[in-house]
Structures are given as structure tokens and as C-alpha cells.
Design brief:
The chain has 320 residues and is an alpha/beta fold. It has helices spanning 11-16, 18-27, 39-45, 64-73, 110-116, 131-140, 163-174, 198-201, 217-224, 236-243, 257-260, 276-285, 300-310, 314-319; strands at 2-6, 32-37, 51-56, 80-83, 98-100, 147-151, 184-187, 209-211, 229-233, 248-252, 267-271. The protein contains 14 helices and eleven strands. Strand 9 (229-233), helix 10 (236-243) and strand 10 form a beta-alpha-beta unit. Helix 6 (131-140) packs across helix 9 (217-224).
């Protein structure tokens, strides 16, 4: 028998439930795990210990993606089925134990909600790295210079902080009197997000930044593991930075940070003066707003001050 883990669609959501997948393997080390999820989430979860097969769920009309999964799963008896998508699938196939994610509680983080499916405390997101990825990251980011990682892109324009403000903040932090003097700037994200960093790259010497756009998840995670500080929009890169233990600042506006903030002891949320609900009301009143950033009221000074308050020892720690 084996375990069937029915996971999310998006990369960021995959990272958020990665700790639960790790717990399943630690608790059932002899069981093979079949992962059923979207192709983006699979990029975050496929290297987890115990995963021996992956069923990619591409959305099809009339729910045929669920029929395809049922056909793939019905011929065996499962030790445990965990469904994080609240479908009927656990009760349509043979299994010794069935678990489904409970309804969300207002203000509940997705890490907490996922863990409640198994009656567990929150399981911190994880990334699975090997020597190959860490050695490659060390060649790109050798010791001796602090690293400022930036996640300038996102999958929605409304939650994207203006690139020019990332550039201003990066210059301030890496100046001789900044928190990370002389830092290398690490740029991460999907290949299609490279243009979001143009304002940062302009004026930088080639040896001052590393363009890691388009790297796969393990390679990016290994680079982020070496970061002194990550600053980015609400995105998969933000969750990945927090998962590897980097100091992580998530910039929030139209999305609820209570549900999707970076998870971990080295994580911090800095958001717009407006709540997510207030920004939703603006879009409801004027749908044209949905085609532009709703992060413009978040000032560079507010982010810089949050860094100083949260990590007053940061510069000293990097110099030590």
C-alpha cells in the first residue's frame, strides 16, 4: 500500500503544504507516496522524500481531471489519502484512512489550515536541497559579501510593488552606510518576470548582481539559503525564501497576509496602509483598478524602517 497526497495547483501553495508532505514521510517511512497536484505545485514537492510517482492534474472541462485521477487511483488500496482540495476523491477509492482539509477559519494561515487536516500543529514549509545545488549556489554567491535577494515579480499586477521602489530600497540598503553595505543583489523569479527587475539592474555593475530568473526550484532555494535578507511581493519566491530560513520580508496589499504571509521565525510582513478588504472594495467600485498596482501607498521608508525595527543587529551580524 501507499499514500496518496492530493495537493494544490500553484507553486506558492505547494511550498506552503510542503511541511505536511515531509511529516507524512517521517511518520510513514516505508510507504511510497503518490503526489497528485498541479504542474507548478509539483515543482515544489517532487523532490520530497518518499515521493515515487506524480500525477499532474491539469484542469479539464466537466471535472475530467478528477476522473483521470480516479482512474489512476482506483485500482489499488491506499494506506492513507490526504486531500488538500476538499474533493470527494478520498471516499471514491479504497483507503484505510481518509483525510480532507477542513474549511478555512477567518484569519487562519494556510499552513495552519493544512495541518488541521491531520489534526497536527503547523508544519513549517520545507525545501529539499542536495550538495549539487548548494555547491552551485556557493559558486554564484561565494562567502565574503552579504546578499540582498529581491522577488520583484508576482502573478498579479495588483500585488506588485513598483519596480522603481525596489531599486531605491536596494540602493539604500547596499550603500556604504546601509544595512548590507556592498551586498550582491540576487534577483529571483520566473523567467517571464525578468523585466520586473530592469529598474534595479540599470546602473549596476555586472559583478553586483546575480540574475537567477528562470532557475528551477531547488537551485533557487539554494541561492536564497545564502541570502542575508529577502524582500519581495506576495509570491512563491517569498514562500521559498522563508522555507529555507532566510530573513524574509513579504510586501502585502490586496492579498490577506494573515492567510498568506511568509511562514517562520525569520519572516516579517510589511503591508500597505489599506487592508486587503479595503483594496478589494476599491476594485469592486472601479474594475479598471485591477489592471494596475495597488501597492503604491507602501513607501520605501516604511519598508526600511520595518527592517531596522525587526533586525537592528543585521548589519553587525553580516560584518561578523
Amino acid at each position: 500500500m501507499a499514500i496518496l497526497f492530493i495537493g494544490p495547483t500553484r507553486l506558492g501553495d505547494g511550498i506552503l503544504v510542503s511541511g505536511l508532505l515531509h511529516w507524512l514521510h517521517e511518520t510513514h517511512p516505508a510507504e511510497e507516496i503518490t503526489l497528485a497536484c498541479g504542474r507548478w505545485a509539483a515543482l515544489a514537492l517532487r523532490d520530497a522524500p518518499g515521493v515515487t510517482s506524480i500525477h499532474i492534474m491539469e484542469k479539464r472541462s466537466l471535472g475530467r481531471h478528477w476522473l483521470a485521477l480516479w482512474n489512476a487511483a482506483r485500482k489499488r488500496r491506499w494506506r492513507l489519502v490526504l486531500d488538500l482540495r476538499r474533493s470527494a476523491m478520498p471516499w471514491l477509492i479504497r483507503a484505510e484512512a481518509r483525510h480532507s482539509v477542513p474549511p478555512a477559519v477567518p484569519g487562519e494561515h494556510r499552513v495552519v489550515q493544512a495541518a488541521r487536516a491531520l489534526g497536527l500543529p503547523p508544519q513549517a514549509p520545507r525545501a529539499w536541497l542536495g550538495t549539487v545545488q548548494r555547491d552551485a549556489a556557493a559558486r554564484l554567491l561565494p562567502p565574503g559579501r552579504p546578499v540582498l535577494a529581491l522577488g520583484t515579480g508576482s502573478n498579479w499586477i495588483c500585488k506588485t510593488w513598483p519596480a522603481e521602489r525596489f531599486a531605491v530600497l536596494a540602493r539604500r540598503l547596499t550603500a556604504p552606510d546601509g544595512a548590507l553595505p556592498g551586498a550582491t543583489i540576487l534577483l529571483v523569479g520566473g523567467a517571464g518576470e525578468r523585466g520586473s527587475a530592469d529598474a534595479i539592474i540599470a546602473g549596476l555593475a555586472p559583478d553586483r548582481f546575480v540574475d537567477a530568473f528562470g532557475q528551477d526550484v531547488p537551485a533557487t532555494a539554494a541561492l536564497l539559503e545564502r541570502a542575508s535578507l529577502f524582500i519581495g511581493n506576495d509570491s512563491a519566491m517569498m514562500h521559498l525564501a522563508a522555507a529555507v530560513g532566510a530573513r524574509t520580508i513579504g510586501l502585502f496589499g490586496p492579498t490577506p497576509d494573515a492567510n498568506y504571509g511568509p511562514w517562520g521565525p525569520e519572516a516579517l510582513v510589511v503591508r500597505t496602509p489599506e487592508s486587503a478588504a479595503a483594496l478589494q472594495a476599491q476594485r469592486d467600485a472601479d474594475p479598471a483598478i485591477a489592471t494596475s498596482s495597488q501597492m503604491t501607498n507602501l513607501q520605501v521608508a516604511a519598508v526600511a524602517q520595518a527592517i531596522q525595527r525587526r533586525w537592528p543587529e543585521l548589519a553587525a551580524a553580516e560584518e561578523a
